[in-house]
Amino acid sequence: MKGYYDLHVHSCLSPCGDEEMTPGNIVGMAQILGLSILAVSDHNTARQLPAVDALCKEAGILFVPGIEISAAEEAHILCLFPDLPSALAMGEEAYAALLPVKNRPDIFGNQFILDENDRPVGELSKLLINATALSIGEVFRRVRAHGGVPIPAHIDKSSYSVIASLGVIPPELGAKTVEVSDAGRQKGYRPPEDGYRVIHDSDAHCLDVFCAHEPGELELDRWSARAVVELLQRGK
After folding, report:
1. Confidence (pLDDT) at 166
2. What are phi and psi of 230, to 5 degrees?
3. Cα–Cα distances in Å, from 97 out to 127, 138, 188?
4. d(Cα 231, Cα 236) in Å, to the nearest integer?
5. Global pTM?
6. What percent of the chain has pLDDT over 70?
7. In the predicted model, what is the mean pLDDT of residues 109-136?
8. pLDDT mean across residues, the chain
9. Contact at 8 Å (CB) between 113 and 120?
10. How far apart are CA 10 and CA 31, in angstroms?
11. Distance of CA 125 to CAs 14, 15, 31, 65, 167, Å?
12. 194, 201, 195: which is closest to 218 by C-alpha?
């Protein structure tokens, strides 16, 4: 079974995400774009995922729960999970590991949690775009303990990537899949080491970027979030 995917989309809960990136708008646009596999991966929280999960079920889109965790080394890790409870549990750990720095909506943007009708039902106070106190190795360990797959995000970027922070992807992490940005794909970027499965996602913070992304295709042996996670755990 094959499906077009985007596994790195930010909702308006991420303060850097546009207010238009509501659960309803994201899932509606995913339908228009012909996506059949979707992950919303906000910074250091999973609180927006229940609403997106409910809407994806209505739309017939395979939903993969995600979080983009910012490690202490200022490297972003795309973390995907086989089910919603696992993502929510890891999301609480990531949020707890953030420094107690309050968000400034006038500077960084709002951090509203929305329901499936795009109505505000809560707000997070700690600034989500800060780094957590979790090292890269600890992020990998904890995500795997929850059954998820940790993926070095946008490794071609000169900031907020594992390579930008450490110079290499440490082999002891055991990463099997890496993410390359759209800009990197267009420039023909390749990982410095062979053997990785490479995925390309929009990393969209607004609908324009979401729409401009050319989705890749995944082939699954069964139609489930767990199958997506297992495929990316195996790598190339």
Report:
1. 96
2. -65, -40
3. 12, 11, 36
4. 9
5. 0.97
6. 100
7. 98
8. 97
9. yes
10. 16
11. 12, 11, 32, 22, 33
12. 201
Quote the pLDDT of residue 193.
Answer: 85
Task: Give the pLDDT confidence score for residue 182 in this predicted structure.
Answer: 94
Q: What domains does the chain contain, in order, with CATH numbers? A: 2-234 (3.20.20.140)
Cα–Cα distance, 176 to 78 (Å, whole number): 13
pLDDT at 192 over 90: no
- Does residue 207 register a pLDDT over 90? yes
Q: Is the pLDDT of residue 200 over 90?
A: yes
pLDDT single digits (tens) 45-59: 999 999 999 999 999
pLDDT classification of 194: cutoffs 50, 70, 90: confident
Listing DSSP states for the chain in one string gives: -EEEEEEEE--TTSTTS-TT--HHHHHHHHHHHT-SEEEEEEET--TTHHHHHHHHHHHTPEE--EEEEE-TTS-EEEEE-SSHHHHHHHHHHHHHTB-SPBP-HHHH---EEE-TTS-EEEE--B-TTS-BS--HHHHHHHHHHTT-EEEE--TTSSSSSHHHHHSS--GGG---EEEE-HHHHHTT---SSSS-EEEE---BSSHHHHHH---EEEE-SSSSHHHHHHHHHH--
**Token digits of residue 109:** 């943007």
Distance CA 60, CA 70 (A): 31
Backbone angles phi, psi at 138, to 5 degrees: -70, -35
